[in-house]
Amino acid sequence: MTVSNELIDSLLANYKKPEDLIGEHGILKQLTKRLVERALEVELSEHLGHGRHEPVANPTGNTRNGKSKKTLKGEFGELPLEIPRDRHGSFEPQIIAKHQTRWNGFDDKILSLYARGMTVREIQAHLAEMYGTEVSPTLISSVTDAVIEDARAWQSRPLDTVYPVVYLDCIHVKVRDAGTVRTKAVYLALGLNLSGEKELLGLWMAQTEGAKFWLQVVTELKNRGVQDIFIACVDGLKGFPEAIETVYPKTAVQLCIVHLVRYSLNYVSWKLRKAVAADLRTIYTAATVDEAETRLDEFEAKWGADFPTIVQSWRRNWARIIPFFDYPPEIRRIIYTTNAIESVNMSLRKITKNRAAFPSDEAVLKLFYLALLNISQKWTMPLQNWKAALNRFSIMFEDRMPIR
To answer: What is the Cα gyration radius of the chain?
Structure first.
């Protein structure tokens, strides 16, 4: 349908300032109201089989029966409408459904603001300022609560049978629990699938961390279809290596090198950090395990007296470090760090920093689910050089690679 210039000129005959077009009583709002109400009249005529003031054409004798008033909320503010009715109450409007009080897309606007970390009060203020629409906290809660079922379905969805790499990390949040504010850990599992694409496998909340909890997590992954994980990258989470090896005995558990280096440098003054970091680098960039052990001995001889805690940490975790040396550069680059999931956690921290405490575990799940949907929309491409890494995986794990 083409709108003629003559019609537009007629509508703008008295236009003098922007408010005349987009203001509270502007042309756009008036035009929207008139068009919607006319469309409703057309729908009712179609339903009845006859127009206004025309003879009754339907076999039941159904006719018009006045109008009811409704206020529709949307980006244009609040729009009062008159909804036509029929005597039998069988008319089901399409453009504005029964019981609908918000314009299509308005709920998406609320969810988008919520997913970016805005509190209920901030969303209220934003909608009032931008659109002149008063929205109650109850309405906002009901809109956001509607995603809970989607979040639960997402958490229980089937997963791929094989993930070459799975990263696991956590973020801490404060949650009200039985009248007390407690710090809880939210754990995320991020997988790299066989296409080299990042995929969030799930999120879990725990009061405390331990082997029993991690056993529950990996068992859930197994029940959702994950039959094999080649390499699991962790940041030293207590109990996780033992738990994953119980469910996936062939999986290599790799300690995140970056986390270990950061932990080590916490004990070093700023003046010496550069030198210590350079010597640590010689350990994890070694070509073989034997060379790495030699470099660790050299590091201990040079720095052991000043920083015994660093040496003890590396030796204590050595069994979780050395799987790194079994792999070629293409795979080392992928498992060297858990940056892939740390970037996700950084985004989540940004949206939680304005919240003193969440009212419930469900509120955390709701916000994180919406935020993770936003974050994952940016993952449209596989990792760089994935083909080279996949070729290596195909050779090293030939008997475990699924037939594609």
So the answer is: 30
CB of 43 closer than 8 Å to CB of 95:
yes
Residue 162's φ and ψ, nearest 5 degrees, are -135, 135
What are the phi and psi torsion angles at 294 (to 5°)? -60, -45
Quote the CA–CA distance of 253 and 241 in Å, as a whole number.
6
d(C-alpha 345, C-alpha 341), whole Å: 6
Rounded Cα gap, residues 193 and 63, in angstroms: 60
User: How many Å apart are CA 294 and CA 16, to the nearest integer?
Assistant: 81
One-letter amino acid identity for 335? I
Cα–Cα distance, 189 to 200 (Å, whole number): 6
Structure-block tokens of residue 222: 């197994």
pLDDT digits (tens, 9 = 90+) for 133-173: 677 777 777 777 878 888 889 999 999 999 999 988 888 88
Pairing of strands 77-86, 64-74: antiparallel
What are the CA-CA distances from residue 83 to residues 30, 74, 270 (Å)?
16, 17, 71
